[in-house]
Design brief:
By secondary structure, the chain is an alpha/beta fold. It contains eleven helices and 15 strands. The chain folds into two domains: 187 residues, Rossmann fold (3-Layer(aba) Sandwich), CATH 3.40.50; 149 residues, Response regulator (Rossmann fold). Strand 8, helix 7 and strand 9 form a beta-alpha-beta unit. The N terminus is likely disordered.
Length: 399
């Protein structure tokens, strides 16, 4: 979602990123209903992601979404007689710390892993999980290499290049533009990965990239040069494969410089509405490729949003929360399909059963109807949302 969208900016909508967020920051909850063990047939699900630091909005969203799923499953009787326990550890979006967290979770009895949240840590942890034959499903690690270490690794989100391909298809199929300007972060694997997929498919679809302007993590506050080059190129659509923090500045500076063309972004733009706050009017009409929007009237999304807000003090869920929720429910479905009912089984034995079952289930999730291939990739329909601003309030609307 991604080495930090997720989908933020996500969303943080997205993951490099600093946005205010609510939610628990501790490593684990206390009761069985809240994820803690009270003895008995308790299956420990590990989680790893940034709970502190610049990417914390993503990690806390995944943790909260996963915890909500665990609580609901336990309240409904658990899985095959087992109670689920979530133990979620902070990696600060750092690969070395993520591996340390993985080892901590192994020592704590983890049998399956939901994580990691961001791509670079996931690449490091998936290599360790493959050695151990530990089942791993990342909600939002979107880099190609995040799950290539072994057949034990799966993901909920699309790959970065896959998201880029889908973006080019959507633009061409809906005739949104023919001359495309791009502003991207050349120092970020999420951004460059999406752009690679976009470029390859743009050629196939007859789209012309008339401007491709880079920035880096060391220079991401003044985008006037990039914006002016896009304006001068005659682009009729701006593609932003970046996170919402930088996107919010680009939108504001584009208004000042007179660049007024449609904007499409990846899931990293999830979080843009809150980031802009009272300036949200400039995001009216911005299109975001996200499989979940809290303001969507779709029944599953609305029910999830209501439950999330009630549990986490009114916090509005972002895409990463939905990804975390779906990841836990994918684990539940696979455990049920595989007939795993004894939490004392070894992690490797559970993995042998669950990784086969993952290719046989269909999850009717918050982020869409999903199946999985043997290489761990999800198959589901892409979704695009449009930001609509009414009376100073921004909301997502399905397109």
């Amino acid at each position: 979602m991604k080495n930090v969208w997720k989908k933020v900016a996500a969303l943080s909508l997205a993951a490099a990123m600093t946005v205010p967020f609510t939610g628990c920051q501790s490593g684990n909850s206390g009761s069985a209903a809240e994820g803690g063990s009270e003895g008995g047939n308790v299956l420990v699900i590990g989680g790893i992601g940034p709970l502190t630091g610049g990417a914390a909005v993503y990690g806390n969203a995944v943790k909260n979404g996963a915890q909500l799923a665990v609580d609901k499953i336990n309240a409904e009787g658990g899985v095959n007689g087992m109670t689920l326990q979530l133990n979620f550890q902070d990696d600060e979006h750092d690969a070395e710390k993520a591996v340390n967290a993985y080892n901590t979770l192994k020592d704590a009895g983890m049998k399956l892993l939901v994580g990691t949240v961001t791509s670079a840590p996931c690449i490091a942890v998936s290599a360790e999980a493959a050695k151990d034959n530990m089942f791993l499903i990342t909600p939002s690690g979107s880099a190609i290499d995040a799950i290539t270490a072994g057949d034990n690794c799966f993901r909920v989100c699309f790959t970065d290049p896959g998201q880029g391909k889908i973006a080019a298809d959507y633009i061409a199929d809906n005739q949104l533009g023919a001359k495309i300007g791009v502003i991207y972060d050349s120092s970020d694997v999420y951004s460059t990965g999406i752009l690679d997929g976009f470029k390859a498919e743009a050629g196939v679809k007859g789209l012309e990239i008339v401007a491709s302007e880079a920035f880096t993590a060391d220079a991401k506050t003044d985008f006037s040069v990039q914006i002016q080059k896009v304006k001068d190129s005659g682009a009729d659509l701006l593609f932003l494969p970046i996170y919402y923090q930088e996107a919010s500045l680009i939108l504001q500076q584009s208004e000042t410089l007179g660049l007024d063309i449609p904007v499409l972004g990846g899931d990293g733009l999830d979080g843009l509405i809150d980031q802009l706050a009272d300036k949200v009017a400039i995001a009216d009409g911005v299109m975001v490729m996200t499989p979940f929007a809290a303001s969507s009237p779709e029944a599953k999304s609305a029910e999830f949003t209501k439950a999330y807000e009630e549990k986490f003090n009114g916090e509005v869920p972002i895409q990463f929360a939905a990804d975390g929720y779906d990841a836990v429910y994918a684990v539940k479905a696979a455990l049920e399909k595989a007939g795993v009912s004894d939490a004392s089984m070894s992690a490797s034995d559970i993995c042998d059963k669950v990784k086969v079952a993952m290719t046989e289930i269909t999850l009717e999730g918050i982020t869409g109807t999903t199946t999985w291939t043997a290489d761990g990739e999800p198959t589901k329909a892409p979704q695009v949302m449009k930001i609509v601003v009414t009376d100073g309030v921004g909301a997502y609307e399905a397109m």
